[in-house]
Amino acid sequence: MNSSFCYNVTIMFRFLVFLFTILFISSNTGAQESDDIALRVSERDGFVRIVFESQRDSQIARSKIFASHTLVKVDFPESFSLKEHSIPSSVSLSIKERSLYLRIKNLDKIKEFKLASPPRLVIDAFLKGYKPPEITVGKKSLRSIMLDAGHGGHDSGIRVRKHKESAITLSLTKSLASSIKSSFKKIYLTREDSNTMSLKERISVIQSSGPDIFLSFHLSNANYFALYTGIPFSEYSLNDRDYNTAFSLLKHKDKSKALARSMGTAFRSVFNTEILYREMPLPLLSYANAPSVLIELPGADFLAYDGKTLSMIANAVSVGLSNYGKR
After folding, report:
1. Residues 294, 303, 35, 89: is their CA dihedral positive or negative?
2. What is the DSSP letter of 246?
3. Range with the poorest average pLDDT among 16-30, 67-81, 121-135, 189-203
4. Model pTM?
5. Which of 36, 46, 136, 213 has its CA 20 to 30 A from that of 187?
6. Are 215 and 135 in contact (CB under 8 A)?
7. What letter does residue 269 receive in the DSSP assignment?
8. Which is nearest to 284 in space by CA: 186, 220, 190?
9. How far is CA 106 from CA 125, 127, 266, 319, in A?
10. CA 80 – CA 34 distance, rounded (Å)
11. Looking at the domain assignment, is residue 197 inside a domain?
């Protein structure tokens, strides 16, 4: 083997090493390129809303939130650069590596949820002494609400793997009752455990309680929210309307539709999914004698019904009620 050949091989080897080094550095630099995260902070009566928006799903999905005293810490999985809008004086901001720190004056507690399209992390920071506004429609205060958890007991409703419709609706109504307790003087639940409850028993409970709003929750196999408002059963004649309680829904028809629209707008904002509005002669809605909506949730194949998802649904319902009260 002559020296000229060995020299050429050495040169070629060094060139390949150099080329691979350049390619490695370039790819590593691209992988480490920081993500632009948009930050919006707004202060309302008694709470601060913080919204982080990214173009990367993983940046939001894998973020972790910690809160202690007046400090909220957000850890992001990837490096980022922050694009911030104006921040109220009650909030101060600092960044260290992949962590962002928000110091909020008079912080009491936080609620956080994550949204898609685009990926967003939303943190509601409630300040000490915060009281949700009382929900009113026009000049009338809505003092009471009834939440109906569909099915129960031996009637489990839809089953998908480990999920039962009766258990999901019960967990949701309890979570919702807790989140809106400051907005209503009285919150009724048609059932508070897994016992069986007949349609006749539910109607009796509704009529004896006389709520200002009635919401019934069910599950479907679809990938969208369906909101039902009632219409009278056709077998009753016009002459029966003043005497049959099933026709009490007629005087609440417009308000029920407005309530359904407020709910649908809130669900679409949180879950970015299709909303269907339907009218059907449903006994529960017919006998409620109040603005009433039956809410059919997406199936368990499309929503992971864990604690966070239930909290997001409850938050959307709460927003829907509040927006309905402002009409």
Report:
1. positive
2. G
3. 16-30
4. 0.63
5. 46
6. no
7. H
8. 190
9. 10, 5, 28, 24
10. 4
11. yes
